Amino acid sequence: MTLCWQIRQEIDEIARGEADHDNNVLTNAPHTSEVVCADNWQYPYSREKAAYPLPYLRQGYKFWPSVSRINNAHGDRNLVCTCPPMEAYMV
To answer: Which domain range does residue 84 map to?
Structure first.
């Protein structure tokens, strides 16, 4: 199973009403290691589903993001580059 297929299944769960529209694994993604390992789990889905949506991630391919989303989808769509201007790289 590929990541795209898994995301499609999670979208379908929401569409069928099996997952909450506003509080689901997609809306709350990405899940940081701090969130997954916290004593208090406040989500209606399992920690396993949040941390390892695909089996191959358990085999050492898991990337743990350092932060979750910033400003939800707005932050994903409007990235801010903090790199120096291109002129700084010219010799």
So the answer is: 3-89
